[in-house]
């Protein structure tokens, strides 16, 4: 494969200069500005020389509830997190996001991208909590796009007809242990596998890199 061909398979060219980062957040409620962020995990991605998307690095933190935050009893009962258990080894939002943003900025630079883009299952939820936390700590520049995301729930609905993470993974042939669900680390890793499969499946179907001559022939057949 020539150098010119290799350049086509750089991650920056696949996602219009954005660097995708898979994220899952566990919280003490649904309101990003008032409810506590309790756990966050990220998985960074890489693309090999043949253009296949793969899992790269992982970061995971338990988070101390920020001062004045609300703990919704039904939310912590659901995700089984005790926010004040000293054995959690929780850190501040500032400490966790500083480490996460540092790694993301490094990956953005290494891949010649211009900004990170959040990938998540039902991405609006995680994006809102990430942006609210970034705004609270204030002093660290946020490397993520302020509103654009990749939502694996929507993509899975299109490809598999399933929007629930466990069911979408099963349809994709990815093992899913429901006893580990709602752990930020486990859900992030499974979402990363799912996103890679969605992107790589499109490539296997011939959808990327765009084959304009093949597409023209398909259009002619469709319109015949």
From TrEMBL:
One of its GO terms (biological process) is tRNA processing. Its cofactor is Mg(2+). Pfam families: RNase_T (PF00929). Residues 19-204 form the Exonuclease domain. Mg(2+) 2 binds at residues 24, 26, 182, 187. The active site is at 182 (proton donor/acceptor). It is an enzyme of class 3 (hydrolase). The record marks 30, 78, 125, 147 as: Important for substrate binding and specificity. SUPFAM superfamilies: Ribonuclease H-like (SSF53098). GO terms for cellular component: cytosol. Its EC number is 3.1.13.-. Mg(2+) 1 binds at residue 24. InterPro entries: Ribonucl_H (IPR013520), RNase_T (IPR005987), RNaseH-like_sf (IPR012337), RNaseH_sf (IPR036397). GO terms for molecular function: 3'-5' exonuclease activity; magnesium ion binding; nucleic acid binding; RNA exonuclease activity, producing 5'-phosphomonoesters. Binds two Mg(2+) per subunit. The active form of the enzyme binds two Mg(2+) ions in its active site. The first Mg(2+) forms only one salt bridge with the protein. Keywords: Exonuclease, Hydrolase, Magnesium, Metal-binding, Nuclease, tRNA processing. Trims short 3' overhangs of a variety of RNA species, leaving a one or two nucleotide 3' overhang. Responsible for the end-turnover of tRNA: specifically removes the terminal AMP residue from uncharged tRNA (tRNA-C-C-A). Also appears to be involved in tRNA biosynthesis. Belongs to the RNase T family. Homodimer. NCBIfam families: RNaseT (TIGR01298). This is Ribonuclease T. It comes from Buchnera aphidicola.
């Amino acid at each position: 494969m020539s150098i010119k061909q290799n350049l086509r398979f750089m991650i920056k060219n696949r996602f219009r200069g954005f660097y995708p980062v898979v994220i899952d957040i566990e919280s003490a409620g649904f309101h990003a500005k008032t409810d506590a962020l309790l756990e966050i995990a990220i998985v960074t991605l890489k693309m090999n020389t043949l253009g296949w998307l793969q899992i790269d690095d992982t970061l995971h933190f338990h988070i101390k509830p920020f001062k004045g935050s609300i703990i919704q009893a039904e939310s912590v009962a659901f995700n089984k997190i005790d926010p004040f258990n000293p054995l959690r080894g929780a850190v501040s939002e500032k400490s966790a996001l500083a480490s996460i943003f540092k790694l993301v900025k490094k990956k953005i630079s290494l891949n010649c991208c211009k900004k990170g883009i959040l990938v998540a299952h039902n991405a609006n939820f995680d994006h809102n909590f990430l942006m609210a936390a970034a705004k609270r700590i204030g002093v660290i520049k946020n490397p993520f796009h302020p509103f654009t995301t990749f939502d694996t729930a929507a993509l899975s609905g299109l490809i598999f007809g399933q929007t629930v993470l466990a069911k979408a993974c099963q349809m994709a042939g990815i093992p899913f242990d429901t006893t580990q669900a709602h752990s930020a680390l486990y859900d992030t890793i499974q979402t990363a596998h799912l996103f890679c499969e969605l992107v790589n499946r499109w490539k296997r179907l011939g959808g990327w890199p765009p084959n304009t001559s093949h597409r023209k022939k398909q259009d002619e057949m469709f319109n015949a």
